[in-house]
Design a protein that fits this description.
This protein is of the alpha+beta class and 223 residues long. The chain has two domains: 62 residues, Alpha-Beta Plaits; 150 residues, Leucyl/phenylalanyl-tRNA-protein transferase, C-terminal domain (Aminopeptidase, 3-Layer(aba) Sandwich). The protein contains nine helices and ten strands. A seven-stranded mixed beta sheet has the order 5-6-7-8-9-4-10, with helices on both faces. Strands 1-3-2 form a three-stranded antiparallel beta sheet, with helices on one face. Helix 5 packs antiparallel against helix 6. The longest helix is centred in the C-terminal third of the chain and has 15 residues.
């Protein structure tokens, strides 16, 4: 899925040798944003990565790959787009939101939902790592229920100024949309103005997310 050319092993910095992440400006342009490989998914490594605009994304049978794309997909929490049809749908529903009720269940839902490419990057190593982050207070999840039944959810990593969304799922029609709407409301109430969506996604674009240059994202990330 990701490592299409073996020569990348020869030119990418190895995080285990560096002992720290290289500057994000050194990320490759093809594939866009690939910065380095190796290291681990310990809480310290993950926290350092997210604080510097870097995230892991790799297949289970690959080394850990770290990314920082030239353009970042973001959603400002006050810019979420609610279409007229979605607004009408919201009025018909009895919505209830739950924060951090069952993080492990949320991440497992995200790992096992059907995807068009029949693949997932949320494998057991990732699940274990993000559950550790949650236990330490650096990650949180949101679930939404419709008429008392589970409908969707989202999980991610929280930094001082940005919520780094990792994945979301739907169990019912528009479940992930309800979850994203609830997340934006919750973050606004807690002074967080930006959701990091990482890479372009048409579904998120339809809800108001947009691409901004990496430098602009880093400024927002650091406040």
């Amino acid at each position: 899925m990701i490592l299409a050319h073996l020569f990348l092993f020869a030119v990418l910095p190895n995080l285990t040798q560096l002992g720290a992440f290289p500057p994000v400006e050194q990320a490759l342009t093809e594939p866009d944003g690939l910065l380095c490989l190796g290291g681990d998914l310990s809480p310290n490594t993950l926290i350092t990565a997210y604080q510097n605009g870097i995230f892991p994304w790799y297949n289970e049978d690959e080394p850990i790959l770290w990314w920082s794309p030239a353009e970042r997909m973001v959603l400002f929490t006050d810019e979420i787009h609610v279409s007229k049809s979605f607004a009408k749908d919201i009025k018909k529903q009895q919505l209830s939101y739950h924060i951090n009720r069952n993080f492990e269940q949320v991440i497992n839902h995200c790992a096992h939902i059907a995807r068009k490419d029949q693949g997932t990057w949320i494998h057991p190593e990732m699940i274990e790592a993000y559950c550790r982050l949650f236990e330490l207070g650096h990650a949180f999840c949101l679930e939404v229920e419709l008429d008392g039944k589970a409908a969707g959810g989202i999980y991610g990593v929280i930094t001082d100024h940005v919520y780094c969304g990792e994945s979301m799922y739907s169990l019912k029609t528009n479940g992930s949309k309800y979850a994203l709407l609830g997340l934006c409301q919750h973050l606004q109430e807690n002074g967080i103005k930006l959701i990091d969506c990482q890479i372009h996604n048409p579904h998120l674009a339809s809800m108001g997310a947009r691409l901004i240059p990496r430098d602009d994202f880093l400024k927002l990330l650091r406040g």
